[in-house]
Amino acid sequence: MVLQPDMGNLTQAVVDVLNHPEAALKRAVAGRELLWDVHSIDESGRRLSSLLATI
Q1: pTM
Q2: Residue 12 to residues 17, 18, 37, Cα–Cα distance (Å)
Q3: d(CA 26, CA 16)
């Protein structure tokens, strides 16, 4: 199975970044912060599971 990118969405995303770079940067930073939060929650869950396994 080969995935085909949606060129319309890709083109619109590029135009959006070029026309509104500040907004695009804010979205990118927010996405990175969300990813960091998810990673931190996952790591905390692993630590908690490990701790509970020793009880």
Answers
A1: 0.48
A2: 9, 10, 28
A3: 13
Q: How far apart are CA 55 and CA 53, in angstroms?
A: 6
Which residue bears the tokens 């927010």? 30
pLDDT by residue, tens only, the chain of 55 residues: 677 767 888 888 889 889 998 988 888 888 888 888 888 888 898 888 988 888 8
Tokens at 16, concatenated: 């959006």
What is the span of the domain harbouring residue 37?
A: 29-54
**54/37 Cα distance (integer angstroms):** 26
Q: How many angstroms separate the CA atoms of 21 and 27, rounded?
A: 10
